[in-house]
Amino acid sequence: MTEPLLSEKLDRYLESLVAPRAGELAVMEAEGRQTGFPIIGPTCGQFCYLVGRLTAARQVFELGSGYGYSTAWFARAVMENGGGRVVHTVWDESLSHRARTHLTALGYADVVEFRVEEAVQSLRRSEGPFDLIFLDIDKEAYPEALDVIETKLRRGGVLLADNMLLSGAVLDGRSRSARTQAVRTFTRRVTAGDGWIGSIVPQRDGLLLAYKT
Fold first, then answer.
1. Are 86 and 75 a contacting pair, CB within 8 Å?
2. How confident is the model over 94-122, as pLDDT tens digits?
3. How many CB atoms lie within 10 A of CB 145?
4. Per residue in 21-58, pLDDT tens?
5. Is the separation of the CB atoms in 139 and 114 below 8 Å?
6. Distance of CA 139 to the CA centre of its chain
7. What's the chain's Rg over C-alpha atoms?
8. How many CA atoms lie within 13 A of 1 on its CB side?
């Protein structure tokens, strides 16, 4: 069961509600389309920006940042909130370089800290607390990441986690892959645990929004 959960017509409509992206952000979207790189896209990008503004986030950590598309939305929010830091973490040096180029062109590089290392370990060694943490790494690592996130996110802070529906795999009771089981475990811990208030927003592949109590 790996079918789009939103119709193409609805997906296009939701994207049409996001203000047009000009300049470098449009370049980044075109790069994603041309290369097949899985960026979060403008609908989720706008949602992430909105959450950043609503929470007045000034300290943001991204576990998995790609070539900086999601970072751009968070950096915009942080700058409009008065400044702060967005930690961009990727394994690959070339991705980090591409992100720096894009974010410099957008005028956001001054609030971004670029790291080339494994994301969970990077968060583990970071000085917190953070106001907002974004999770978009290998899905098998989501439960391990949550252990660390719980120690680094401030009370009243927000967690955003991508790909919570796995193209419908979580709805298929026959799916027992490691990544599906990991996402199910992660989801149960957040939605049923005492330390969180969370809900999944069914945009694109499912975006979890959770408040740390």
1. yes
2. 999 999 999 999 999 999 999 999 999 99
3. 24
4. 989 999 999 999 999 999 999 999 999 999 999 999 99
5. no
6. 12
7. 16
8. 14
3-state secondary structure 26-59: HHHHHHHHHHCCCCCHHHHHHHHHHHHHHCCCCE
Phi first, then psi: what are they for 81, rounded to 5°? -85, 0
Give residue-wise pLDDT tens across range 73-94: 999 999 999 999 999 999 999 9
Rounded to the nearest angstrom, the gap between the alpha carbon of residue 72 and the centroid of all alpha carbons in its chain is: 11
Count helices and strands in the chain by DSSP H and E runs = 8, 7
How do beta strands 207-212 and 85-90 pair? unpaired
Q: Which DSSP string do the residues of 160-186 spell out, in sequence order?
A: EEE-SSGGGGGG-TT---HHHHHHHHH
Longest pairwise C-alpha distance within the chain: 48
Q: Are strands 85-90 and 153-162 parallel, antiparallel or unpaired?
A: unpaired
Q: Which structure tokens are listed for 178?
A: 């490691």
- Which candidate, 28, 24, 43, places its Cα nearest to that of 95? 28
